[in-house]
Amino acid sequence: MSQFWKPGTEKPRLLDDEEGGLLFFSSLPSSSSSGFGYLSIERLRQRLPVYKYRTAILYLVENHATTIVVGETGSGKTTQIPQYLKEAGWADGGRVIACTQPRRLAVQAVASRVAEEMGVKLGEEVGYTIRFEDVTKNGVTMIKFLTDGVLLREMMDDPLLTKYSVIMVDEAHERSISTDILMGLLRKIQRRRPGLRLIISSATIEAKSMASFFNSSKKRRETEGEVQGPRMEPAILSVEGRGFNVQIHYAEEPVSNYVQAAVSTVLSIHDQEPTGDILVFLTGQDDIDAVVQMLNEEVQNRGRNSSGLIILPLYSGLPRADQELVFTPTPRGKRKVVISTNVAETSLTLEGIVYVIDSGFSKQRFYNPISDIENLVVAPISKASARQRAGRAGRIRPGKCYRLYTEEYFVNEMATEGIPEIQRSNLVSCIIQLKALGIDNILGFNWPASPSPEAMVRALEVLYSLGVLDDDAKLTSPAGFQVAEIPLDPMISKMILSSSQLGCSEEIITIAAVLSIQKYNVALDTVNKYSAILQSIWVSGRGAQKELDEAKLRFAAAEGDHVTFLNVYKGFFQSGKSSQWCHKNFVNYHAMKKVVEIREQLRRIAQRIGIALKSCEGDMLAVRKAITAGFFANACHLEAHSHSGKYKTIRSSQEVYIHPSSVLFRAPKCTLAPLLTVVTFGVNPKWVIYHSLVSTDRQYMRNVISIDPSWLTEVAPHFYQHQHPASMLH
Ligand SMILES: Nc1ncnc2c1ncn2[C@@H]1O[C@H](COP(=O)(O)OP(=O)(O)OP(=O)(O)O)[C@@H](O)[C@H]1O
Questions:
Q1: Is it true that domain 21-239 has CATH number 3.40.50.300?
Q2: What is the pLDDT of residues 294-350, one digit of tens each?
Q3: pLDDT tens-digit profile of 221-239?
Q4: For residue 432, what is the enclosing H or E element?
Q5: pLDDT tens, 563-599?
């Protein structure tokens, strides 16, 4: 490894614990609690750097409304602070201590760890809530871990979050869109509930700017004449020290192909380094699958030499059971290799990890309010992320981190912090949520980082055109409130709402469930060429594109993709939800199981908000009209005499094309026996509506359905201003 790798020049840090950890770990830990050899959990807790600050933390929380805790990764913030608070009585009298995380996986993992440390059953004193899953008990749960998105939803029922005594916003440096909105709202709640304590915790957050953000509420309280309660001026506490030392190694030369470099680094570690599991950070399912495949091939070619490798992918779309494999103990004599997206970047402790390989990239959301395109793009990570990644080693023994980039790049070119997600996202969902919480003055809202005015105006326009906001930019009643209640993109929610009147809610809810599991990624592949990758109900087309295309044709509906989804769903249902059926038809079994699950959730929500559940029994006209009612703003017209399939959007005359993954790409004359009505046609439909745009070499429409233009003025007269859409083309 020495020819390729250069040790970092950053001065190695001292182990926080003078005794070091190796004494206790002459061999790798093998199971969750037994991994700590003969140390009791209590002793382990006391060895964490944060323990020395226990009294200080409790003092500051008692006396300040907001405490900002900055501590290195692995210092014990997430697992220990909620326990200290509980021990100090903050959960007495039925009150609850909340700790938010940006990611679901972290919520579950940290909650089980804390339950284990406290010796209680998960779901009782310690519980967690993520979207569609609540593992808490009313009146029993004292410490609750939850995603920041879930806490925002809870505010709809309880705007002052009255059951919580302390809310700890963890991993605030990640600046996820929900974390930022949450901080803005918590700051408001504090003014009404001085008893509420906030802890903002992170490894790298710029504590001073955060402190001044929370400090401005002090002035307001003074002007309001309120003088009692804790000090409004935030306290900042810096927790020194971290777990164990992690040696950083940099690539000697810039790496041109990080996928290939990750594979060879795993193999070199396996050949040359002592036991210990490996965690590789890549960007998404596509490159993770590629590395898994390359490593498996290598293992086969090498025969016995590499047979000790257990190769496991990890990403958010992976089924739960497969995700949990990464937490299982590594059998003696084996080495686990976890190949992950940045879901493993923060808060997770994977016990056996000794080596981390960091590609230097992650998938990040970028939204352009002018073109209205939001893509997941492979982009360089920040120094803050790189440190978090390295911190996944060294949590229970010393470790090593191999960065697939040079030290010079790290020092001189890598950004210190990432751009907050709120400044690179479509704000439609975020604004409707704020409106539902009674924040009418969106422009005047105290954002920790202001989103762009263009993105805000664009989001307000969309919500207004959907009939969700009125002329005073307030939520309409009941439509606006109903749309806000459905935890999906407002355009999908509006489509569901309209299906109620059109008598096709069962079908539309199926379509909504399929749309909500899809993710569009734009990947910078290994030769620096952009390509679009779709995570969908179809299995990945890698190596079998022709067979996948043929399979799609079996379900293809000439109306378009949404009706095709209904055909697939019906086929899946008729097969008894069989995995063999999925395999035979190139349908992604796990995605379909998720669709069934989400569909059930959506049906329950629909019933709660008064949407009649009804099937249109094959009347696809009703289905297409309901889709139009949600997505009318995405209408496009085929250019006259266009043989190249060029469309123009009605709204902004952008040139767009049907994406090759759409069943309308080849304008299918439907073959084989369809499961639902399929109209035969062989030319591109004149009018279409798309679900989203993706930008690669051209602007492509994904999930396309043909429509009748007269529906546009029918469902959205305000948007089309009583003109016939065709007249708006020029
Ligand atoms: N599931 C686990 N198994 C074993 N040890 C664990 C586990 N979870 C946490 N620990 C131990 O507790 C330490 C502190 O973890 P914790 O998540 O509280 O740190 P943190 O300061 O919040 O770090 P980060 O910001 O990286 O999440 C870990 O370094 C590890 O030694």
A1: yes
A2: 998 888 887 655 578 999 999 877 777 788 899 999 998 899 999 999 888 877 888
A3: 544 444 467 888 889 898 8
A4: helix 428-436
A5: 999 999 999 999 999 999 998 998 988 889 889 988 9
The residues near 262 (Cβ < 8 Å, ≥ 6 apart) are 280, 282, 291, 339, 357, 359, 404
Return d(Cα 311, Cα 313) in angstroms, integer.
7
Cα dihedral value 503, 505, 508, 510, nearest 10: -140
Q: Assign a CATH topology to domain 463-616.
A: Four Helix Bundle (Hemerythrin (Met), subunit A) (1.20.120)
Q: Please report, for the chain, the start and end positions of each structural domain, with discontinuous segments joined by +.
A: 21-239, 244-421, 463-616, 622-729
Q: How much distance in Å is there from the Cα of 353 to the middle of ligand 1? A: 12
Nearest ligand 1 atom, CA 72: 21
pLDDT digits (tens, 9 = 90+) for 180-217: 999 999 988 988 898 999 999 977 656 677 777 887 65
Letter for the amino acid at 557? A
CA of 347 to the centre of ligand 1 (A): 7
**Residue nearest to ligand 1 atom 30, measured at CA:** 395
For the entire predicted model, the pTM comes to: 0.79
Q: Which residues line ligand 1 (CB under 6 A)?
A: 32, 48, 71, 73-80, 113, 203, 243, 346-347, 349, 351, 391, 395-396
- Indicate the top mutation candidate among 15, 47, 79, 401 to test ligand 1's pocket, ranked by most ligand atoms within 8 A of CB: 79
403 C-alpha vs ligand 1 centroid, how far in Å? 22
**pLDDT tens, residue by residue, 94-113:** 999 999 998 888 999 999 99
Query: CB of 147 within 8 A of CB of 107?
Result: yes
Q: Given strand 361-368, what is the order of strands in its sheet?
A: 361-368, 373-380, 519-524, 530-535
CATH fold for domain 244-421: Rossmann fold (3.40.50)
Using DSSP's 3-state secondary structure scheme, residue 313 falls into: strand
**Nearest protein Cα to ligand 1, atom 26:** 73
CA distance 622 to 628: 10
ipTM, 2 dp: 0.96
Within 13 A of 230's CA, how many CA atoms are on the CB side?
Answer: 24
